[in-house]
Design a protein that fits this description.
Number of helices of chain A: 13
CATH superfamily of the largest domain in chain A: MoaB/Mog-like domain
Distance between the termini of chain A: 43 Å
Order of helices and strands of chain A: EHEHEHEHEEEEHEHEEHEHEHEHHHEEEH
CATH topology of the largest domain in chain A: Molybdenum Cofactor Biosythetic Enzyme, Chain A
Radius of gyration of chain A: 29 Å
Number of strands of chain A: 17
Oligomer: homodimer
Structural class of chain A: alpha/beta
Shape of chain A: elongated
Largest interface: A-B, 88 and 89 residues
CATH architecture of the largest domain in chain A: 3-Layer(aba) Sandwich
Largest sheet of chain A: 6 strands, mixed
Strand order of the largest sheet of chain A: 2-1-3-8-7-6
Number of domains of chain A: 3
């Protein structure tokens, strides 16, 4: 079973507004085993909305419209859906009385234009709206459902919970859904796909989706079945086939981000962490401390942006910086060891590099990053060159640093 | 002129993901006088995408597709658009060579499946992508334009700025547009609006838009006219009316963010800056160093997450912490002074507080933040309580810290 969601309103087509109703609806529909296959936002335009609804009806079991149920000329949802379905609209005195009573309760007369909200598409059931004037509408046609819901979330959500969910459950075959999210650091999407596609393409259930961000790949597995046990079996069986292909490149089996995984390992080991950041300027520590409770294992560290600070705060010898420069293996090592010693933490991670856009040299072009990880068993330094702009180089450096630490923590 | 935007990717149809590219594109298109009339998100499905593109082509002058240009079977945008337009796809050896060179630069072989990204729809111009493997495509048909752009924002935005804007400007009727962006820190949106609405509501040209983020309000003024001089006059006249109403709460008159404004003032004064961060854990320094060239004035600083580090790294007396706790005016002052002395920077900013969700006390509930600014003329401490979750409390603390420093820098 699949659904399309259509949000109506020109205000949702401005540069700063997002349609958040569809996120809520997607969550609820997914829980019922219904996949959302298309979402559309249409301005207050009868013809465009009519054509969008027609296309949605041609390919979805459930079509949900949100917004555009108000009393003004701009509110085109009722008209557009009626036209798309080829149905009339009927005035309902009982709905009009309800709207009028609502106004009276607030000590105001009902404006004449509010009568528009008392029209129902032929064959529709009215859905009560205790939090606003616009009733919702539920229409069934040939096993398909069309829902008209008000735009304000505080009206839409209670209406959906109370009046739409029970109707949808009656309409839908019983289905359980189980998901698993594997995460992999610092592998290109194409390389991950090449390794695992021969496995996952053999199955349509579980369905597999691969999502890529800077230095971070998420593999979403999603199984459906009539029983929870069977859905669980399906998803776990596929995960068991995929995991050996990626081995220890997988850092998370439940969707947790890298900073949560590393924090969890440190907490288990009862060990502490410090940092010494140059080119990332606090980005690594910011990620680590974005996790609530990170004070259990993160003690602090040093921002040594200039060379002089590397010497003054971390004791990196001036001669070392003169000979090797600050973007070098010896500098990264001295920074990590200096931070570990000065904080007394079990672990220290250092990052030094050239984030760009300027500052590159022949020996250390823009994107060059050295990462030191010092721990109870000594210090190792990793060297990489990342491509992209300043933001991306810095993000990839923090991702690499966290992944190196994860591997050392075992 | 109107545009439709189609985002491609099943991952954008999950309950937690939003399509942010379309917000950026809408902003840029609006500046060109192009209205966005429909936005659609379609999963990785050839037929659905083909039908959506056909509907968009039937009613929009400009159709922009984002995402789905990757190398895997899931990446259906090229195929769907070619089918919707009834055109073939042609393999381009030069594009393939470019993709291969990109892999070589990173010391990796190109996977066979990446060859897919070297196919161009017949009649399309390839748009270079310096930040990724997928080239974009620009197609003109009967005065309409179809754009295929990569999904990652760091690839899409530079490509749009450099290669799409000039082509769109050539296609569109000539119109001069002049904008001005005023920015205000730490004022509620309603308060800003109450002050300036009596002025800006008198004009439809320039149009005024107010955008609100955590602790940051942007006021966008946008004038259109047949001549550049007239558009400039219109926008400057409105700005001159608004600015006195907000006075020194305005920190930027050209849209620059606070970290750029503060950096510019430090550079003008030839002075340096250091930080000492507790609850923000590097977020303040990360913002400061996100600006290219920030090494001119930012020297570094201290992450003193635990109390012990405040004493060990900054010399905050243990007795002071025992008596007043780490979230207190004396602690913030000692941190700022300690950082200034140890780094030798002209200025030092300290932040200590309770970001939550736990750790609050009666004296310092969650959201309490003390910010110290130490400079050549002494140290002052600011106390605030911010509402919201951990991320928001931390973001508001860095925003307040930067604005306090801006005011001290005069």
């Amino acid at each position: 079973m699949n659904a399309e969601i259509v949000a109506v309103g020109s205000e949702l087509l401005t540069p700063r507004r997002s349609d958040t109703n569809s996120l809520y609806l997607t969550g609820r529909l997914n829980e019922l085993g219904v996949e959302v296959t298309t979402k559309t936002i249409v301005g207050d335009d009868r013809e465009r909305l009519r054509d969008t609804v027609r296309l949605a009806l041609s390919r979805a079991h459930i079509v949900i419209l949100t917004g555009g149920l108000g009393p003004t000329e701009d509110d085109v949802t009722r008209d557009a859906v009626a036209t798309a379905l080829g149905r009339n609209q009927l005035f309902r005195q009982d709905l009009c009385d309800g709207i009028e009573a609502r106004f009276r309760l607030r000590g105001r007369p009902m404006a004449e234009i509010n009568r528009r909200q008392a029209y129902l598409i032929e064959g529709a059931e009215a859905l009560p709206n205790p939090n606003g004037t616009a009733p919702g509408q539920w229409i069934e046609e040939q096993g398909r459902a069309v829902l008209l819901l008000p735009g304000p979330p505080n009206e839409l959500q209670p209406m959906f919970e109370e009046h739409c969910l029970p109707r949808l459950e009656r309409l839908l075959p019983k289905q359980a859904i189980r998901t698993r999210v594997l995460r992999v650091a610092n592998m290109p999407e194409s390389e991950v796909d090449q390794k695992i596609a021969p496995v996952y393409t053999r199955y349509t259930n579980p369905a597999t989706t691969i999502l890529a961000a800077a230095g971070d790949i998420q593999i979403h597995l999603r199984a459906r079945s009539g029983s929870v046990a069977e859905a669980t079996n399906l998803v776990e069986a596929l995960a068991a086939e995929i995991e050996p292909l990626l081995g220890d490149r997988i850092y998370s089996r439940n969707g947790d981000p890298l900073e949560v995984v590393v924090g969890g390992r440190l907490r288990e080991r009862g060990e502490t962490l410090s940092v010494a950041e140059s080119c990332t300027g606090g980005m690594l520590a910011e990620r680590i401390t974005s996790v609530a409770g990170s004070s259990d294992y993160f003690v602090g560290g040093f921002l040594v942006y200039g060379d002089r600070m590397k010497t003054a705060l971390l004791g990196v010898p001036e001669a070392l910086l003169r000979e090797h420069t600050a973007v070098s293996k010896p500098a990264a090592e001295a920074m990590a060891l200096g931070a570990r010693e000065r904080t007394g933490a079990a672990w220290a991670v250092s990052i030094t590099g050239v984030a760009g856009p300027s500052g590159g040299t022949e020996a250390a072009p823009v994107g060059t990053v050295f990462i030191g990880v010092a721990g109870p068993d000594g210090c190792r330094v990793h060297h990489a060159r990342h491509m992209g702009d300043r933001t991306r180089v810095r993000a990839l450096a923090t991702q690499t640093a966290l992944d190196l630490l994860r591997r050392r923590l075992g």
